């Protein structure tokens, strides 16, 4: 049974949060959930929450850790799953094509540094280029600002591409376990375009990831491509911003047990967006298009640079250009 309301979430969490004690009455499940949500939403320290709820600091710390773990266990299968069917991928692609005018995009990927208290014996592993200690949240989102994949816990010194290269998502892409649809023709173009993920310059270009052109030797075509890519890639930046403003723990607190807290915030972010009723894109116009065989056009043998040029040529062609795109490249 899927969780649709906060009342259902609370009742489902009750089965996971029961404890017995012969010394004193247990803390009610409602209060434990309230303490955790207040901590995540406000970023208050355990000392502040101690005065609000009259609970010990260590008790609050244990409650936050335990409830965040259970929130992830209860919600992640329902709210944060990598799409497994062609229909799900096509729905994501339809969202990006409708809102960002980027065809065949199935995700925007980027990394976010989350401030932490440096673990014991962590040394310089968690010290990032922004001069504070952090772990990295690597995430991919759709056009509705919902996370579709997260990887939490990499050291702050690691680059986004290194984290991505070591992730399960990269491994599945390499061996073909991601059930992406076949390449398809787009808007009056006879050339089939593969389904891809967009990222920033920190990611290496490949058959699955498109990154912007380098700033040197920029041509009109390259500037147009970079503009169109940035319009799509900003969705992951906006998703991070929406989550951070919703859960101010990311603004004010150096986190302890940070991995559990970040994972809980990600699934709660998706749960709230679904609960609030985000827009669902109609995929009928894309599902009905004719798919083209991979082998017939040798798409899989093309390099990342060739695929990037394919999209760039389309964006400056009469079929794929936008009326206003030339206004934003100079």
TrEMBL record:
Domain of life: Eukaryota
Any one annotated GO CC term: nucleus
Domain DDE Tnp4: 109-270
Alphabetized UniProt keyword annotations: Hydrolase, Metal-binding, Nuclease, Nucleus
InterPro entries: HARBI1-like (IPR045249), HARBI1_dom (IPR027806)
Location within or outside the cell: Nucleus
Cofactor: a divalent metal cation
Claim: Cell membrane is one of the keywords in the record: no
Gene Ontology molecular-function annotations: hydrolase activity; metal ion binding; nuclease activity
Coiled-coil residue spans: none
Chief place where the protein resides: nucleus
Entry's family note: Belongs to the HARBI1 family.
Protein name (Swiss-Prot/TrEMBL): DDE Tnp4 domain-containing protein
Taxonomic classification: Eukaryota, Metazoa, Ecdysozoa, Arthropoda, Hexapoda
């Amino acid at each position: 049974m899927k969780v649709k309301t906060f009342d259902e979430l609370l009742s489902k969490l009750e089965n996971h949060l029961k404890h017995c004690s012969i010394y004193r009455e247990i803390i009610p499940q409602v209060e434990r959930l309230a303490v955790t949500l207040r901590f995540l939403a406000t970023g208050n320290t355990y000392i502040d929450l101690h005065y609000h709820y009259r609970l010990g600091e260590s008790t609050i710390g244990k409650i936050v850790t335990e409830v965040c773990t259970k929130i992830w266990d209860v919600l992640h299968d329902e709210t944060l799953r990598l799409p497994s069917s062609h229909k799900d991928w096509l729905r994501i692609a339809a969202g990006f094509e409708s809102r960002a005018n980027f065809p065949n995009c199935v995700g925007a990927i980027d990394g976010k540094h989350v401030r932490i208290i440096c673990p014991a014996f962590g040394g310089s592993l968690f010290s990032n280029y922004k001069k504070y200690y952090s772990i990295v949240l690597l995430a991919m989102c759709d056009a509705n600002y919902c996370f579709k994949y997260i990887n939490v816990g990499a050291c702050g010194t690691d680059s986004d591409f290194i984290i991505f290269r070591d992730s399960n998502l990269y491994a599945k892409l390499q061996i073909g376990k991601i059930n992406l649809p076949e390449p398809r023709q787009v808007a009056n173009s006879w050339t089939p375009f593969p389904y891809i993920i967009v990222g920033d310059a920190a990611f290496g270009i490949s058959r699955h990831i498109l990154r912007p052109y380098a700033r040197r030797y920029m041509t009109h075509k390259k500037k147009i491509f970079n503009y169109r890519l940035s319009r799509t890639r900003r969705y992951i930046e906006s998703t991070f911003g929406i989550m951070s403003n919703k859960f101010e723990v990311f603004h004010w607190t150096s986190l302890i047990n940070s991995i559990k807290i970040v994972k809980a915030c990600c699934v709660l972010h998706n749960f709230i967006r679904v609960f609030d009723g985000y827009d669902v894109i109609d995929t009928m116009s894309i599902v009905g298009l004719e798919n083209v065989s991979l082998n017939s056009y040798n798409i899989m043998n093309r390099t990342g640079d060739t695929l990037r040029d394919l999209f760039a040529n389309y964006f400056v062609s009469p079929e794929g250009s936008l009326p206003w795109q030339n206004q934003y490249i100079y």
